Every structure is written in structure tokens, then in C-alpha cells.
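It would be a great kindness if you could assist me with a short task in structural biology. A protein sequence and the C-alpha cells that stand for its backbone fold form the material at issue. I should value your view on which stretches of the chain appear to form regular backbone elements. The record follows directly beneath this note.
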Amino acid sequence: MRDNRKLIKNEEKISSSEKVMFCFPYAGGGASAFRNWENGLGSDVAVCPIQLPGREERFGEQPYEDHEELVEDVYSEIRKFSDHDIYLYGHSMGAKIAYAVAEKCENDGIDIKGLIVSGCSAPHIPDYDPIGDLPTEEFREALGKYNCTPQAILQDEELFDMFLPMLRADFMISEGFSFGKSRISCPITALCGTNDDDAHENDVMQWRKYSDEFNCRTFEGDHFFIKEKENDVISYLRKVI
């Protein structure tokens, strides 16, 4: 049985904050991707990254292989904080998880103040080039093009073998989501990179079909513009929330 209490980082800070932003990382990423966000978003916002098993301090744990189980487990923890102003943020795979959690929250009567998605096409648009079930060497090559996995891991056979189960599971999760066109009542803010080959601006703009209140902001950069333009992204998110 999983220890779902480990899913939320910085949980102890929620009680003293009116607002809480739960942050969902991209495939292969962990909570440390958001280490610089806390100070930038202000003292009134508890920044709580979701730490999935199989990475960082949870490296030895079995990664999720089923997106429905993942969403249910995350939701079961987030719902405990329904008396706060909840914002959900996700990048790439994380955006899909955040949307699924937002939908589940609203279906159960939990108010979400905002859904923020970045580097992710709208839910009804399939992945252009899925890689999760590629043979190992082709998968490794594809990861190199994504620029999300350190070269030290990709080029070291032993390291790569250690990280392979988590990386493959994440991409299978991300590419395995199946959505309809369910609208949600909370505002949606979409962020995209000008040179993102994985989530084209027109496809990101399709998120407008999922809420009556929609905004989109473009940043210079590729799929990981949130790293390249981190300060600009944090500044913009501060305005959003």
C-alpha cells in the first residue's frame, strides 16, 4: 500500500496560508523543479509541489503506472484542504494530472480557484509523437530530444537503467490519458513557449474550450520555457493568483 502522505511537499505551510498552489511536475520531474517558486509567489501562498514516487527522495518507490490511481491518490490528499483557496498548476504531464484533479474536485463540490496549465496541448489533442512504449534505445534517444533528462543519466548505462522504469512509466501515464471535452467552472490560464515543438501555441490555445474564463500567455523558449524564463513565469503567476 502506498503512503499517500508523501505526495504533498510543504504541507506544513498550508495551515498558515490562505492560498495554496499544488504544483504537478513534467514527466521525469520532481518537486525540486519548483524550489524557487515559494519566495516569488509571496508569503500568502503555500507552494506545495506534488512529489510522485520513483524520484528524488522517493526514488526507491514504485512509480505510478495507472493514471486513474494517480489522480485518485492525489485528490484524496488535496481534498483535505478544501477550506483554502486552491490553485492547481501543472507542466506537460503535470498539466494533464492537474486538469483531471480539478475535474474530480469540481464533480465532488470542491471549489478550485484556478487551473494553470503550461507546455501542454488541450486534453482532446493527442500526443504527436508518443514515446512511452518505444524500444529502450529509441526511448533513450527520444528523451534526449525532450531535453528533460540530464545527459549524465542518458549517457551512463547503469544510471539510465536505474531511472528507466520511472521515466517510461511517466511517459506511459502522460500519453495514456483519455479525456472528453468536459468543461470546468474555474478559470483556466495556459502558458506556452514560442518554440515548443511538443505543445504548439494553437494547440495550447484550445484549452479555451474548457472554461468560460480563459487566458493564455506566451513566453520565449522551448518546451521548458518555465526554466529558461523562470523569473518571468513566477512574476506572471503571482498576478494570476
